[in-house]
Design goal:
single chain; 297 residues; six-stranded antiparallel barrel; 38% helix; rod-shaped
Length: 297
């Protein structure tokens, strides 16, 4: 009676091992069924739809970080590409400018080579190093000196004619006074009638002057002045200037012809220095006369 009337304090159920076995068998059964007949697709879709909001909520921080990083990367890439394009545009502009400069220098050098055919003296091609900053003189410093045979007194020319005259030299450089400098005076003549004159520099307006003209001097605006060859330093026949106007002084009785140089030293970098014999200028005239006579023969 006592055994029958005792109360069971602990209710015993299936063991944990048994339950694990049941779950394993159930899982295998569901795997086989799902792989063969797809009968669990509706349930899977219902679960996926129910879990989707939670998935998006969990992935939202990651998506926000990726969006910000993508925007920063795009902005950085756009900035980098813009800087690269700007640098490339600047480089292309520099290349185009350099190419245009080289083309212009090549044309000038070709014209200088054609000038050498018209003079009998040998010449040295020089390049401008710099222009001394002096408001009272007009000089140019070239990149060649006594090591290349340049001496003081030698004329400097370009395609337009006389540019100036070498004043001082060093072994590696030479300094020339331009045609408009007050230190320059060149024996010249009027191409139209052969009238011999002296061309002086020193005009503040970039002009040259023919001074001490009398009333009988046959020189008019438009006349071209060329070197006469007198003195031997400047070969005869080089272009010098073109007369702009005649200014007459009633008090002194003389007139002054104002002329514009035909050379353009402010435009070019390369010039020719004629290697004349500065120690014995008369020999230059004799050499030119001998060369002229041989050409006639």
């Amino acid at each position: 009676m006592q055994g029958q009337g005792s109360i069971r304090l602990f209710k015993r159920g299936p063991t944990a091992e048994f339950r694990l076995f049941v779950f394993v068998v159930l899982a295998l059964f569901l795997l086989v069924v799902d792989s063969r007949w797809r009968v669990l697709d509706p349930a899977r879709q219902v679960v996926a739809v129910a879990l989707y909001p939670f998935q998006r909520l969990v992935l939202a921080p990651r998506d926000a970080i990726e969006s910000v990083n993508g925007w920063l990367d795009a902005a950085s890439l756009a900035r980098t590409e813009k800087e690269a394009l700007q640098q490339q545009r600047i480089e292309l502009a520099q290349i185009a400018t350099h190419a245009a400069q080289l083309a212009a220098e090549n044309r000038l050098l070709r014209r200088l080579l054609s000038v050498t055919e018209t003079v009998s003296q040998s010449s040295v091609a020089v390049e401008v190093l710099y222009e001394p900053p002096n408001a009272f003189s007009h000089h140019l410093v070239f990149n060649k000196g006594t090591n290349n045979g340049i001496q003081p007194g030698m004329p400097v020319i370009d395609e337009g004619g006389v540019v100036g005259q070498v004043m001082r030299v060093t072994p590696f450089t030479s300094e020339a006074a331009l045609l408009t400098d007050e230190k320059i005076s060149i024996p010249a003549q009027v191409l139209r009638n052969g009238l011999r004159v002296i061309v002086f520099g020193g005009s503040s307006s970039g002009k040259v002057e023919v001074r001490y003209l009398t009333g009988e001097s046959d020189i008019v605006p438009g006349d071209t002045l060329i070197t006469s060859g007198v003195g031997g330093l400047f070969p005869a026949g080089l272009l010098v200037a073109k007369v702009d106007q005649i200014v007459r002084d009633a008090a002194s009785g003389f007139a002054v012809a104002i002329a514009s140089p035909l050379s353009h030293p402010e435009r070019y970098r390369h010039f020719l220095v004629l290697r004349v014999d500065t120690a014995n200028p008369e020999s230059n005239q004799e050499a030119r006369q001998d060369g002229a006579s041989s050409d006639k023969q």
